[in-house]
Design a protein that fits this description.
Blueprint (H helix, E strand, L loop, with lengths): L7 H23 L6 H14 L3 E2 L6 E2 L2 H12 L1 H24 L9 H26 L7 H30 L3 H7 L1 H25 L2 H52 L6 H15 L5 H13 L9 H4 L7 H7 L2 H9 L9 H6 L20 H16 L10 H11 L6 H9 L1 H9 L30 H9 L3 H15 L7 H15 L4 E8 L4 E8 L10 E3 L5 H7 L3 E4 L17 E9 L2 E10 L7 H18 L22 H18 L3 E8 L2 H8 L1 H18 L5 E6 L2 E7 L3 H16 L2 E5 L2 E4 L2 E8 L6 H24 L9
Antiparallel strand pairs: 1-2, 3-4, 3-8, 4-5, 6-7, 7-8, 9-11, 9-14, 10-11, 12-13
Helix pairs in contact: 1-4, 1-5, 1-6, 2-3, 2-4, 3-4, 3-8, 4-5, 5-6, 6-7, 6-8, 10-11, 10-16, 10-19, 20-24, 20-25, 21-22, 21-24, 22-24, 24-25, 26-27
Length: 817
């Protein structure tokens, strides 16, 4: 770290060390010192030793054998020679370490303020050691007691002065607590300084007995020990390198697996990497230093959303609030993830993090509703940082929160959603967590090479609603005669197979009708280009069309692209995401309603209606748009529809919706049944004796029988069922959320009631209203309306033959074709 980058407090501390070291250095050289030939020899040896410092594995500190010679110089020649030797050893060791790691070109990396700090620290150490050593020697202890006490004082003083001054400096440089730095290498430092003092004492004693030759005898022993050390370190580092490589491959595999989720969930691109960094940083702030536990947090954070692989993409990428059904599907991803990973023998606890990271402190989370400390500790850490990343990144339904909002949010949720102790540490450590997050680099293309648009805009979602499709679409059709005529004309247009028409002809016709049915400023017809993965504005209706023709949006992106790709309509959302790529000034529409133009799973495009004012589209307008879009898709797909038997959406005789009404609504109701995964039953009711009634009692009597039957059926069916008069003596009931068993029960009840119901054709004559009924289920029996009706008609004919046989007491039934 350069001098300019240091904090003010750190600079003050360094200046204090420099200032204090100057008088101490002067005092060291002002006392009695000697510089004999033995000192020069020891200095040369210590310089060599300083370049081969002993570094122990997994520990950042080093053991310098030169410390032995520094103590020898202090005890034999005085503080001045010892300080010179210490300085030279310090500089030599530092230069050697830099060259070893960076080569000669790395010398420019040496920082002058660090060198001066180390030299100043050396002066303070030697000065304090000299004073206390002489005090111990001059004590009343006899030799060698005073000498041993002096060595103990030397080691203790050197340990305290050296480690304290250095730990304070490192704590400032790395923004760590003093105790964390000081305690990291305390045991090694104690061994180093006390071991060096003991070795220096032995050498002093032998030197006094044997003179200089003691060094010649010690040299082979030192060489052998050093070679053994090198051999051990070499093997250890080879094993460590192999383990590190395996760990690297292991985490790369995990990252690749987690990238599969981001390939589906585009809006959370980079989320997994950021959460991993946040979780590890928060764990360290909570005092977790164990490497195994940190690795568990690192792996768990990478894999916490792996279960989203089982969630449909349209839910993961939906640019608005999820419905109840969609949210229930989303809630399974922790369990799916835990089950996926259960067969992997992780060396640390990962599964509890994956399964429980959506549990809440108050017990209202999922999937197991764990409460308080029942939730695994690492999962509690993960839940906080998972939420933090969601709040600080762009999401399609809201903008990122600023720091004050985030702090207020977590304070509110402390003790409710999150562990209060973890939240307190999180808020206190927010600076460090933000710095860690800023270090994450997220490429704009993921593992699969999919370009991700970083300009995803934020939009509010509409409230969740329960789906009753027949009610919703019936209201949309129950309008004045003008709207019914326009809808009818679109329906009639969809029935004709126009081989000569282009898509623009279709858009022009439908666009003209749309303006009579729904108020809007601009209607854009987007056409899908599956080869390029885009939808393109192929036709625009309205006065505010500048800059919209030819507008291209990627599938899955923005609003209209998402609607087209996922076959889901959106209503009353701000449409500005669609216009982010437009040139200034961009369109200033405020509200949108968008419906897909898809048919039988084929993506064909979307119809988007935009308004410049804040007036929202009504539910009836939105449903009309959905029905018009489905009919437009039929036209574009050149699909035939059954021919008309009537000229109105309502039957004039019974007041029930007509067959046109059924055809117009079925497409959207079937889409809803698939979307929300509920059964849809079609029940065909045929009145058996109307032909005989008309022939015997007159046409009016036959019509009265039909009207009476229609009133009975309307009364017996639910409000959410759709009942239409399909033919002269046939009715069709479309029953959402009705299983086959429920439909059979309804059939038995209706037939039993009608069999016992007598209709008065004359004052003194009554006839029964018998009915044959056929049932078809979507999508088990068929997936389109024509096939469903055909299936139900076959079942109705079988039912009629059976009932006729029972009434005629025929023992053998005719074989049905």
């Amino acid at each position: 770290m350069r001098w300019q980058e240091l904090s003010f407090a750190c600079k003050q501390y360094l200046v204090a060390i420099y200032t204090l070291a100057i008088p101490v250095t002067i005092l060291c050289f002002g006392t009695q010192n000697s510089y004999p030939a033995a000192w020069f020899l020891l200095t040369g040896i210590s310089l060599f030793v300083a370049t081969v410092n002993v570094r122990l594995p997994t520990i950042s500190s080093v053991i310098s054998m030169g410390d032995v010679f520094t103590i020898l110089a202090l005890t034999q020649f005085g503080p001045g020679p010892a300080l010179i030797m210490y300085w030279m050893d310090m500089v030599a060791a530092h230069l050697t370490d830099v060259i070893r790691h960076h080569g000669l070109g790395g010398i420019h990396k040496i920082k002058a303020h660090k060198i001066f700090f180390n030299l100043g620290s050396c002066s303070l150490s030697i000065g304090a050691m000299t004073v206390l050593y002489r005090f111990a020697l001059n004590s009343d202890l006899p030799y060698p007691g005073n000498f041993i006490a002096g060595l103990i004082v030397l080691a203790t003083t050197w340990f305290l002065v050296n480690t304290v001054t250095l730990s304070v400096a490192i704590s400032y440089w790395n923004n760590q607590s003093f105790w964390t730095v000081w305690l990291e290498g305390i045991r090694l430092a104690l061994l180093n300084f006390f071991g060096s003092a003991a070795a220096a004492g032995l050498v002093t004693i032998f030197y006094a007995k044997a003179g200089f030759y003691i060094f010649l005898l010690s040299l082979p022993i030192a060489v052998v020990l050093y070679q053994l050390y090198l051999s051990y370190i070499e093997r250890y580092e080879q094993a460590e390198a192999h383990i590190s490589e395996l760990n690297r491959l292991y985490f790369q595999t995990i990252e690749t697996l987690s990238s599969a989720v981001e390939a589906k969930d585009r809006y959370t691109h980079g989320h997994i990497k950021r959460v991993q960094i946040y979780a590890v940083e928060l764990a360290r702030c909570l005092g977790i230093e164990d490497r195994k536990e940190l690795s568990a947090i690192q792996a768990g954070a990478l894999l916490h959303d792996i279960g989203k692989i089982a969630i449909p993409e349209y839910i993961l990428n939906k640019p608005t609030v999820l419905t109840e059904t969609e949210f229930e599907k989303m809630k399974i991803h922790p369990v799916v993830g835990a089950n996926m990973l259960s067969r992997i023998a992780f060396p640390y606890p990962v599964l509890p993090m994956v399964k429980s990271h959506h549990e809440r402190w108050d017990g209202n989370g999922y999937p197991d509703r764990l409460k308080g400390e029942e939730i695994p500790f690492n999962a509690r850490i993960l839940s906080v940082v998972d939420c933090y990343d969601a709040l600080t990144t762009n999401r399609p339904y809201r903008s990122p929160m600023d720091r004050n909002q985030i702090v207020d949010f977590f304070r509110r949720e402390s003790g409710r959603a999150y562990d209060p102790a973890i939240v307190a540490t999180f808020i206190r450590s927010l600076n460090a967590i933000e710095r860690a997050g800023n270090s994450v680099f997220v490429d704009d293309s993921d593992l699969w090479g999919i370009r991700v648009d970083d300009s995803v805009a934020t939009i509010p979602g509409r409230k969740l609603q329960r789906v009753e499709p027949t009610l919703a679409y019936t209201k949309a059709l129950s309008a004045d005669q003008r709207i019914q005529r326009e809808l009818y004309s679109i329906f009639e247009f969809a029935r004709v197979d126009f081989e000569c028409l282009s898509s623009k002809d279709v858009y022009s016709f439908v666009g003209g009708k749309l303006s009579s049915l729904i108020d809007f400023d601009v209607a854009v017809f987007y056409k899908a280009d599956l080869a390029t993965g885009q939808i393109v504005a192929d036709h625009v209706e309205g006065a505010e069309s500048a800059g919209l023709r030819g507008l291209a949006l990627r599938l899955e992106q923005k609003l209209s692209g998402w609607v087209a790709a996922n076959n889901q309509a959106l209503c009353n959302l701000p449409p500005f995401p669609d216009f982010l790529s437009c040139e200034e000034p961009r369109p200033s529409f405020q509200i949108s309603a968008i419906a897909p133009l898809n048919r039988h799973g084929t993506v064909m495009g979307a119809i988007s209606l935009y308004r410049k004012n804040q007036q929202k589209f009504t539910d009836e307008e939105f449903r009309r748009l959905e029905m018009i879009a489905s009919q437009t898709a039929i036209i574009l797909a050149k699909c035939e529809a059954p021919e008309s038997q009537t000229q109105s959406l309502l039957d004039a005789s019974t007041g029930l919706p007509s067959g046109f009404h059924l055809y117009l609504m079925f497409e959207q109701v079937a889409i809803d049944a698939s979307r929300y995964e509920y059964p849809l039953a079609l029940i065909l009711v045929g009145i058996d004796d109307t032909m005989n009634t008309r022939r015997k009692w007159g046409h009016l009597s036959g019509e009265e029988a039909i009207k009476t039957t229609s009133k009975y059926l309307a009364k017996e069916l639910r409000e959410t069922d759709l009942l239409v008069r399909y033919a002269s003596d046939e009715f069709i009931a479309l029953n959402p959320k009705t299983t086959r068993e429920q439909a059979e029960d309804l059939k038995s009840r209706l037939q039993n009631d009608l069999d016992h119901f007598c209709f008065a054709v004359r004052a003194d004559v009554q006839v029964p209203l018998r009915a044959s009924i056929g049932i078809a289920l979507y999508p088990e029996d068929a997936t389109d309306l024509e096939s469903l009706i055909g299936f139900a008609e076959n079942r109705m004919q079988e039912d009629r033959q059976l009932r006729l046989a029972v009434r005629s007491r025929v023992k053998r039934l005719p074989t049905s074709s």
